[in-house]
Amino acid sequence: MKRYAIRTTGDVTILDLNEAPMPLPGPGEVRLRMRAASLNRGEFIAGHGLHGGAGAKPAGIEGAGEVDALGAGVTGVSPGDRIMGRCSGAFAEYALIQAAEALPVPPRLSWEQAGCASLVYMTVQDMLIGQGRLRAGEWLLVTGVSSGVGVAAVQVGHALGAKLIGTSGSAEKLARLKPLGLDAGILTARSGGQGNAAQGNAARFRDEVMRLTGEQGVNLIVNNVGGSVFAECIRCLAFEGRLATVGYVDGVMKGEIDIEALHARRLQLFGVSNKLRSPAERAANVRGFVADLLPLIAGGRITPVIDRVFDFAELPEAKRYMESNAHLGKIVVRIGG
Question: Which candidate, 257, 144, 252, places its Cα nearest to that of 198?
């Protein structure tokens, strides 16, 4: 079968298309004939540490396909079932998924929508509900709001009854997010790259956030951008505010912490990553997604936002498109017929 492998050279990730043996499902595993898989930026950033040392590894961490074979002890699914979820090596003609993470595709979703309907919303469930405890009427600020996680956070935050503020370097993208539930958009300068030069340009939104919230600040922040906006995020938090760090596309790995604000305002800072989670902890996240968000997707209140679909052979081009930051929402690769 054909599959993509990903390897890291310095701070660059490279995709290689090669032939690989058909994977055999072990106990508790399901083999899928892949139909679609989505790009997740964290996998393609060397600094995110998702590549586990030297050498290449199967590429892709989320997708959808038809059940092709079952490992020992698997029940509840049958060959031909439409399944989506988190799976290693999703950019391939066939891939394995843990049965505990195999989710039925809602009938209303296309293969392309199903290919990006699980991992990003699991992440958002963790941020907004599991750790973030977002309630109706609270203020949610999403930095880098046009990313896949950012768009999903707007959709879920709106469904939860929160008031939404987003930052972006594109006025057009902010306008396109208004119908999805964005109440206010703040146009920020494009960072243009990594390091301190980007830091001063991007981190200027506190005054507008305070004006929008009546000088109270926001209750929860999703930081997609990284260290260049970390200190500004702290300055935007209300009393007992929460700050979720989910990415650092700016490449800035450190940020200033105002200890006095942290103490006096009883702030909470937390990270959102699956890197060190145990299988049981990941399965708990899946259950939270199934309980809190899958009904909203199945029922039509939330629909995955796809910016562009590429063919399987075009995955390197899809990666370059993602790195251009031109997209809004998810980028998906179509696999097979």
Answer: 252
- pLDDT tens digits for range 38-81: 999 989 876 544 444 557 899 999 999 999 999 999 999 999 99
74, 105: one domain:
yes
DSSP letter at 34 equals E
Mean pLDDT by 10 residues, the chain (337 residues): 92 93 97 97 69 74 98 97 96 97 97 97 97 98 96 98 97 97 91 41 84 98 96 98 94 94 98 91 94 98 98 97 94 92
Are the beta carbons of 40 and 116 closer than 8 angstroms? no
Same domain, 132 and 237: yes
The pTM assigned to this predicted structure is 0.92
Strands (E), the chain: 2-9, 12-19, 29-38, 57-58, 62-70, 82-86, 94-98, 103-104, 139-143, 163-168, 184-187, 218-223, 237-245, 268-271, 306-311, 330-334
d(C-alpha 231, C-alpha 226), whole Å: 10
Range of the domain at 264: 121-271
